[in-house]
Task: inverse folding
């Protein structure tokens, strides 16, 4: 932070980002001669040493395949995996650990629900309501279903400000609506959706609601029981955990009625050529050898962010993103997408006269990692009338120095594209 231009004043009880960033080895490097300003956290977050060490410890001491072994290592690994489930349960305040299904990521969680829930509960002519701002992972599984099974996919429009109006979601609900599946937070715009109102509208009609929490869980407290949602999905890697692990939270009543998705391995109760029986959830949905070390890493990540406190993370990131937006507003001919209020620490913008990919490349040369393009939300980009945007997304380890690096990079872009 320069003395002349304080971007951001944190309250005394704010987290100490400078100290926390030292927990993340990857942040301590230069890119093209500049200190790395990592602002691509919505795509994936960096990993604290606590996560890396927990996984190494696990592989070095306790690793074996789980559940089927009577030997010591298998039991230790099973305990670690099942304890990780309890950690995830507590983190989002699920009622029971059995309501936590480990998957390979949010995309798999969404595909699991689309495939399994639909076989149990959706018939031709039934409807699934989403919104226009969904990530492809919460569009395409439903679209495939629509094509194959005659299910009708109804996207609620976004408002001109890049948000979603719960009343417009409600207006789409009919007797044939069997599921509302919406983002908790938009990955492309940072919009925090009015999920409480959307859930209330759905509940009036006994319609279950799935929330795609990929961009929420790492940035705000999430309580699935307080929210009252029926399903909640997220990926470990955006929550400072490893890749290859994700969570599907599903209320027991739903999971119990849903058929297996993938089959084989751990989800089996017994097999004969007369027929096969399946285990109860969550095992029923965890076919094959699961991402065991991934679960251990995810639990370490959850412990790590919980020790900082999700409220404090939310508060700090909010202040940081507001400061960044105020600074970016000073740049000539910049257009922001998404709401000014009620947003997560994601800022999406374009510089008139400069293609987003050029902006991203110049930022990279200045040591700034930002993301450019459609952010896997092409229908949203179409609605906004742009091929893509530049997106910067903050984490609690970002500091005002990262904002300054970003602004310097954009000033450089303006020199090249005046
Ligand atoms: N939904 C949202 C809102 C996301 O941001 C992402 C990741 N960009 C996904 C779903 C898919 O997550 P993953 O690629 O980890 O499966």
Result:
């Amino acid at each position: 932070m320069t003395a002349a231009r304080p971007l951001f004043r944190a309250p005394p009880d704010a987290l100490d980002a400078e100290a926390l960033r030292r927990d993340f080895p990857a942040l301590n490097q230069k890119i093209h001669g500049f200190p790395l300003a990592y602002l691509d956290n919505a795509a994936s977050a960096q990993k604290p040493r606590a996560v890396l060490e927990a996984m190494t410890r696990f592989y070095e001491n306790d690793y074996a395949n789980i559940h089927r072994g009577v030997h010591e290592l298998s039991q230790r690994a099973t305990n670690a995996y099942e304890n990780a489930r309890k950690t995830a349960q507590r983190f989002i305040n699920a009622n029971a650990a059995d309501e936590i299904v480990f998957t390979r990521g949010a995309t798999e969680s969404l595909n699991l629900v689309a495939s399994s829930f639909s076989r149990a509960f959706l018939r031709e002519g039934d409807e699934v309501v989403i919104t226009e701002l969904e990530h492809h992972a919460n569009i395409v599984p439903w679209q495939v279903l629509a094509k194959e099974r005659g299910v009708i996919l109804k996207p609620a429009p976004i408002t001109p400000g890049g948000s979603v109006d719960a009343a417009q979601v409600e207006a789409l609900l009919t007797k044939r609506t069997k599921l509302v599946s919406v983002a908790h937070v938009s990955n492309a715009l940072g919009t925090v959706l009015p999920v409480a109102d959307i859930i209330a509208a759905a509940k009036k009609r006994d319609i279950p609601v799935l929330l795609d929490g990929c961009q929420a869980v790492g940035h705000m407290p999430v309580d699935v029981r307080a929210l009252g949602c029926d399903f909640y999905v997220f990926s470990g890697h955006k929550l400072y955990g490893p890749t290859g692990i994700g969570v599907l939270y599903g209320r027991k009543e739903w999971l119990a009625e849903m058929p297996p998705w993938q089959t084989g391995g751990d989800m089996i109760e017994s097999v004969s050529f007369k027929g096969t029986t399946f285990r109860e959830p969550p095992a029923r949905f965890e076919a094959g050898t699961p991402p065991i070390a991934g679960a251990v890493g995810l639990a370490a990540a959850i412990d790590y962010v919980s020790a900082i406190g999700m409220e404090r993370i939310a508060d700090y990131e909010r202040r940081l993103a507001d400061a960044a937006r105020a600074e970016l507003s000073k740049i000539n001919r910049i257009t922001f997408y998404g709401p000014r209020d009620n947003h997560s620490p994601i800022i999406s913008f374009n510089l008139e006269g400069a293609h987003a990919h050029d902006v991203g490349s110049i930022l990279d040369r200045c040591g700034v990692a930002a993301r450019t393009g459609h952010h896997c939300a092409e229908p949203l980009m179409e609605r906004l009338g742009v091929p893509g945007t530049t997106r910067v997304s903050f984490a609690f380890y970002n500091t005002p120095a990262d904002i300054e690096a970003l602004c310097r990079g954009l000033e450089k872009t303006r020199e090249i594209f005046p």
User: Anything to note?
Assistant: Residues 17-31+309-416 form a domain with the Aspartate Aminotransferase, domain 1 fold (CATH 3.90.1150.10).
